[in-house]
Design goal:
The protein has 371 residues and is an alpha+beta fold. It has helices at residues 19-30, 39-49, 159-164, 192-210, 232-241, 262-265, 284-296, 313-318, 345-361, and strands at residues 55-58, 64-68, 75-81, 86-92, 97-103, 115-120, 123-129, 152-153, 172-175, 180-181, 186-189, 218-224, 245-253, 275-278, 302-305, 326-333, 341-344. The strands form 3 sheets. An 8-stranded mixed β-sheet has the order 1-2-12-3-13-16-14-15, sandwiched between helices. The model is unreliable at 1-13 (pLDDT under 50).
Length: 371
């Protein structure tokens, strides 16, 4: 991943996020929003967004959309996804231990010794992913964490006791770690991927309203569901909105940490600004607008190339409705799909600024015709 010449970390303004924004950020990141069960997170997100929009709607599966200028015929989408990875209860043994399967790209290797919330109709049940102590493992008998070898312990004697807690096959389990401010401007959380994207697009709406900006198009602020299992929410909502333009935001790998391969993954660094993607799904004219906006506004940024697809909701929007000019602005992130996902506050601010400035530059007269 090549960095642009403008890629220098910027100093964070202490007042960029006001007290209300910070309260929203912490509440939203700490809330569980597993794939297929995003409703509680969507409520938090919409409650924050409502003062900055004209109207909103929620589709059948829970994708939430805030709208500015709903009567405008020309429609621009800014989008993130709301869901986080999790686990499903797959099997309960007769002696009361719980085996799981993935709901999204959950990492079996980090599970042992993690605490979990099991979401039931009776409320949350606390449990732990157990693992044999190092004292009893030998080179001859040691097993690696795999889907078949990890388990959750809710301290019950048998299957009946487990079921009496309200736990059944199909219950969703999430890790418990929450938001924490790290050193040197880093933010740590369980699910920056991609609730931080939801924060970015909500803050763009806040800035538009606070700065009294009038857009010449309808702006659809979309927080999609079920991205982690196949871009499902974006696929559905693209058909409903039928946008003229879509700008998506997601996370991408910081490749400066140990065991990351820059030749394979490209080069991106937390603290060096948003990552702007080249990819078949990314429309080159829209991409040029974004790059030009970043340069003219001195917004630090980095570059990324994806060979076949972006793996984000950008793909769903781009190839919908006969083709929608789409682009991807990503937030550099360390330790994706773990409980210690890490981003830099400066990058969050710069992603917000870039998307905001791009919206001010777009008009319904912008041509996306190559020939």
């Amino acid at each position: 991943m090549a960095k642009s010449k403008a890629s220098k970390a910027v100093k964070s303004k202490k007042d960029f996020f006001n007290a209300t924004s910070m309260e929203f950020i912490k509440t939203y990141l700490n809330n569980a929003s597993p794939t297929g069960y995003e409703a509680s997170g969507q409520k938090i997100w919409l409650d924050y967004l409502k003062p900055y929009i004209d109207t909103h709607f929620v589709d059948t599966y829970g994708t939430a959309v805030g709208v500015i200028n709903p009567d405008a015929p020309y429609k621009v989408v800014i989008e993130a996804h709301a869901d986080e990875i999790s686990w499903y209860v797959k099997y309960i043994t007769n002696d009361g231990f719980i085996h799981v399967c993935r709901n999204g790209g959950s990492d079996h290797q980090i599970a042992p010794s993690k605490r979990v919330n099991i979401h039931t109709k009776k409320g949350i049940v606390r449990g732990v992913f157990g693992w044999p102590a190092i004292h009893v493992r030998t080179p001859q008998n040691e097993k690696k964490p795999e889907i078949e070898t990890i388990w959750i312990d809710v301290h019950c004697k048998n299957k009946k006791e487990v079921e009496e807690l309200g736990i059944h096959v199909g219950c969703v389990c999430t890790f418990t770690e929450g938001f924490e401010e790290g050193n040197h401007g880093y933010w740590i959380a369980r699910a920056h991927d991609n609730r931080m994207g939801g924060i970015i697009i909500a803050e763009v709406a806040r800035l538009l309203r606070e700065n009294k900006k009038k857009l010449p198009f309808g702006l659809y602020i979309v927080n999609s569901v079920q991205e982690e299992v196949g871009l499902n929410g974006a696929t559905m909502i693209a058909q409903r909105i039928k946008p003229n333009v879509a700008i998506c935001t997601d996370v991408t790998h910081d490749t400066t940490t140990p065991m990351m391969s820059k030749p394979a993954q490209g080069e991106a660094t937390c603290g060096q600004g948003p990552v702007i993607s080249y990819a078949p799904a990314v429309h080159n004219i829209l991409l040029d607008i974004i790059l030009d906006t970043a340069k003219k506004n001195k917004i630090p940024h980095q570059l990324q190339a994806s060979s076949r697809f972006t793996g984000t909701d950008t793909d769903a929007f781009a190839f919908s409705n006969g083709g929608v000019p789409s682009a991807l602005i990503s937030l550099p992130l360390r330790y994706m799909h773990t409980t210690v996902e890490t981003v830099h506050k400066n990058d969050v601010e710069e992603c917000i600024k870039l998307m905001y400035e791009v919206l001010l530059k777009l008009t319904p007269k912008t041509s996306y015709q190559y020939l």
